[in-house]
RNA helicase
Amino acid sequence: MVKSAKETKKKADAKASPKLKPKASPKVAPKASPKLAPKTSPKEAPKTKKRKQETAEADNEIETKKERNENKKIKKSEGSLGVCAVSDIKEISDASQKALAGKSITTLFEIQQKAFQPCFSGKDVVGRAKTGCGKTLAFVLPVVERIRANKFIKQFRKKAPLCVTIAPTRELARQIFNDFELLGAAGGLVVKCFYGGTPFGSQCEDLRNGVHVLVCTPGRLLDHVRRQSADLSACKTLVLDEADEMLSMGFQEDIEAVMDELPKEGCQKLLFSATLPKWVNAIVEKHLKSPVWIDVAQDPDGNKTSNLITHQCVACPISMRGDCIGDLCKIHAGAFGKTIVFVNTKKDCDELAGNEKLKAIGAGVLHGDIPQQTRDRTMEHFRSGKIRCLVATDVAARGIDVPAVDLVVQTRPPQDLEAYVHRSGRTGRAGRKGTSICFYSRSDEYLLRLIEHKKGIKMRRVGPPQPKDVVGAAADDAVRQLDTVHEASVEAFTAKAKEVIEERGAEAALAAAMAALTGHFRELKGRSMLSAWEGCTALILESERAIETSSKGWYLLRQMLPWEIVEECRGCKRCKDEHRCIFDAPDHLVKKILEVELWRGNKISVAEELPELEEEETDIHEASQRLKETKQRMYERRKGGGKGEKGKGEREGKGRKGGKGKGEGRGKGSSRGRGRG
């Protein structure tokens, strides 16, 4: 009975720990072979030798395959994401190859290579790839080559474009237009881009003259269709880029109306995005015929973003975020890189751009209320590097391809989890590494846990930027700027430099010059590693005994430090190693705290970096339900289902038929003031 109980316990333990199976199997295999060898009979010895040789050869082959795969991964991560040369695809014409070579494009990414043949052959395609992997060219290239190969231009008639591409934002439409114009010009195609905020009459004139490829936003295209200035009855290809964003923005009725105008037969439909939620399947099933699904966004770890992006999160109060972002721009992007800062509202966008540190680095603003000409100019300056920091709403989150964006900052986690994928995807593009940093408060922590769980992203909690990091990055920028100074200018300042060196010393003079060059004239203020508050320093209490809870940390501080000092400390949190806790102390008390004689086995030191903290467990189901309820409240508020609509109006007051009284109600609504019955 005892043996059977042990056996059942072992079996139960084996079933209860499925996570250990993959790790245990490779370790058990080599150990099992020597133990089994003595048990084999001598007659079977030759067979076992052969088997050993075969298994050894097989193991060597597996190892070499693993090495090759690892080498491939290393090469892909180090350099370009290209998987095949442009010249390897015979259907790509010489004119297109020459146009691509002019943009230094000689290889195709995975989504471009896999999508080419289905799109070129006229099939309906649904494509998904991670941000920064070239989805735009994945449909532009085969569409242009298909028009050229099938000679659709001969069937072309005015006001009836051969290809229509719809994008959710004006900036994305402009980007798609640039790619179509690059390849279309080489094949003699007329390409135009229509969107709101631009003159309507000139667009009608363009359609009358003839447009082969039309790129537009949903609302402007529907306006042309309803006014009959555009005819979609001869359209050969419809492309929906970032379809999930268009549907979530409320363009579903517009898209349906546009699709009803397309020919019933012979019109190819292409749908591309970095994220395809399940609810997008409804439009796929209704309008696409036997579509080819191309999904190159799969990741063994479930990461929905590029593996080249480093994800970090910073706990920071709202009032301090502008200053922290300014310092992060200096650390991660420097004087020569680019940063995109995403906010949730237009008001926050304008307010944040007015921060002194962001003004100093020349921040640009981009949101829906800005005139279109200004938006185009801002994006052009950001691409060229005249603007190094762009503060934007989600109009810049989808498909905008700006080279060399080093840093993406989100002022708070978005409630739309897909938006985090697209926002962070503005960096780490085309084989380059990038950093995505998300600020959060205590009330936003559940959103971070949902993003990690749903999108397979592992975020590392870090402290806010420290003065030493800012100065180090500024010093590197100063050295790079010194290298750009012409020799003649150096000679002109040499005499004065010698005088300053004699007066102040070489090191002090050079340090002051570098500080002035990078704009650091004032005294550098410290910032807490834990809470980002200026004037505070994060201290670590370390004990030989385990600190079970944050309350135990507070207890030790109260017992060992004077009460007037403990009263000014705050934010004590337990570290993950169970023997440390971290807390904030005012700068003027740090020296006193470090000089206090503590109990034996305890010590307090200044935190050099933020340790891994003990996080509270998050119930994913409860967090999902909370997010759903928050979205529902926001939807009702936008719809007008709050106090303004229900209100107090249209009530019948007392004495409506006779006598004095309040008539027809009072308050918000369609009624007015007081009345007499």
Summary: The first helix runs from residue 2 to 16. Residues 8-52, 65-79, 642-677 have pLDDT under 50 and may be disordered.
